């Protein structure tokens, strides 16, 4: 009698960072971006705890794709940047990216990051972590050089920084898991996938 077949693992995200984290860990995953009206969902969640917002977004993405691919185990993930009571989204352009970094300069901000698994349209597991990051008092000249080096691609990420690249130069202190900061609480997710027999133990 053979072993039960493993479900296909699907990532409900177009994020190249999340896909890369999984693939570099040797986890085979198919990418099927979720069709979720994220701005509308964020408006409905306005005023809620930032971690609850991140989790609701991750669950919505996982559930959306799971309803299409009911036999697959679907990973949904999301992240929000909270500066006090303010929630910052991805900057729309370089001017907004600069304004965000000027707002974050010399401040500590939280980065609630959630991951959820869905099967047959239902959430079967969820996890949230909240790293804290403190930016240094960088100069305007440094900011000019930063944007000249990064270009408009930096608008694709919340907070206008990639911690695994030039963005690390913005910070004086980081408290939390590096994978979570990049966008996926990888170690808890891998542990749950092992527990479910989806990847080797």
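Q: What amino acid sequence fits the structure above?
A:
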């Amino acid at each position: 009698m053979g072993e039960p077949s493993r479900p296909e693992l699907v990532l409900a995200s177009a994020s190249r960072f999340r896909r890369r984290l999984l693939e570099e860990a040797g986890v085979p995953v198919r990418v099927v971006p979720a069709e979720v009206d994220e701005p509308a969902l964020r408006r409905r969640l306005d005023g809620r705890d930032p971690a609850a917002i991140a989790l609701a977004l991750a669950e919505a993405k996982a559930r959306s794709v799971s309803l299409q691919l009911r036999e697959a185990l679907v990973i949904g993930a999301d992240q929000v940047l909270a500066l006090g009571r303010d929630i910052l989204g991805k900057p729309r352009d370089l001017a907004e990216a600069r304004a965000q970094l000027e707002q974050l300069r010399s401040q500590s901000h939280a980065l609630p990051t959630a991951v959820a698994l869905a099967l047959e349209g239902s959430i079967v597991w969820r996890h949230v972590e909240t790293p804290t990051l403190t930016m240094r008092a960088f100069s305007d000249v440094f900011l000019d050089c930063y944007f000249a080096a990064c270009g408009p691609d930096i608008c694709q990420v919340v907070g206008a920084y990639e911690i695994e690249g030039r963005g690390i130069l913005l910070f004086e202190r980081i408290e939390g898991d590096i994978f979570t900061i990049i966008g996926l609480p990888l170690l808890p997710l891998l542990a749950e996938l092992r527990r479910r027999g989806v990847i080797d133990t």
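Q: And what stands out in the fold?
A: Residues 50-68 form the longest helix (19 residues).
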